[in-house]
Structure formats: structure tokens, C-alpha cells
Amino acid sequence: MKCAYWEQIATVLERVIKSLESDTCSSNRGVCLTHFDSANVPAISLKDYLARIDMYSGYSDSCFVLAFAYIDRLLQNNPGFILTKYNSHRIVLSAVVLAINYSEDNYFDNAVFARIGGISLPELNLLEIYTLLLLRHELYVDSELYFLYTQELQLQNMKKEV
Question: Could you tell me which residues come within 8 angstroms of residue 45 by beta carbon, excluding any fewer than 6 positions away?
Fold first, then answer.
């Protein structure tokens, strides 16, 4: 069975969000707003959102693995930054866009990704800048770390099948 990494990424991120739901930042909307926060929880699930990005972009699984690495790095570099239902979709979109722009020779411009992601082009451009800043402009993922992320995602796939 093909391992669709976006499915495993959604599973992991949803688990992280659920474990942090009782945190004050995710329960008290006025405390920890970021540039990534939306006014409301998006109607589309994170899994369906990633499926949409995959379907309309058509890029390889490696872009999703890189995006996963970027999200993990973002959270590690910024311990006060908390992944929530209000910001996860925008974080995922900006991480995927950065991964595609970094790793692919041919890629869509941000206007296409903004339409796929359901946000405006100026908003996506700002999110991309904020993501780069939170990542400290570190987009390179060495092969060993990349391999560890693919192993983790494949392990998630095996857990799902059991």
C-alpha cells in the first residue's frame, strides 16, 4: 500500500493539537494569537486540507516530508508557539509552499497555492515570510534527518493499518 505522507502528517499534527487543547493559548483566544491564527476553526479537517493540497498541487511525497520537518523545526525553535485548530491549516500551507519552492525545479506561483489553500495571495505571502523567520531561514534538511521523518511517518502508516 502506498504511504501517503500527508495522511500521516495530518494524524500526527491532529494528535499534537488534541494534546494541547487544554492549554491556555488554545482555550483562551485572546492570549496567544499569531499571524497564523484564523478567526474561526476552519470547516475542513486538517486531513482533508492536506489531501486538497496534494490533489491540486500534484507534488511528490518528499515535499510533504520536508513540510513536516519544517513544522517540527518551527515548533522546536519557538517553544512558545503552540499548534492549534486555529493556526494549523495556515502553518501547513506555508510549510508545504516553502518545501515545494525549496525542493522542486518547477512549481506554481503563490497565487495558485493561495487558491488551493483558500486564503488571499497577500496573506500567503506574509505567512511564508513569517514561517521563514520562525525557521530562522533554515530550510535545508540533511538526508539522515529526512530519513528519520520518513520512518516516523511510515510508522504512523503501519499503526493506522493495524
Answer: 10, 14
Q: What is the mean pLDDT of residues 60-78?
A: 94
Is 76 in contact with 110 (CB distance < 8 Å)? no
d(CA 96, CA 3): 18
pTM: 0.86
Give the range among 8-22, 38-52, 72-86, 103-117 with minimum mean pLDDT. 8-22
Which pairs count as long-range contacts for 17-26, CB under 8 Å and 24+ apart, including other chains? 17/46, 17/83, 17/84, 17/85, 17/88, 20/82, 20/83, 20/84, 21/84, 21/85, 23/82, 25/82, 25/84, 26/82, 26/84, 26/85, 26/86
Cα 84-39-29 angle, rounded to 5 deg: 55
CA 85/CA 17 separation, integer angstroms: 7
Task: Retrieve residue 85's grid coordinates.
Answer: 485548530
Distance CA(84)–CA(25), nearest Å, equals 8
Confidence of residue 18 (pLDDT cuts 50, 70, 90): confident
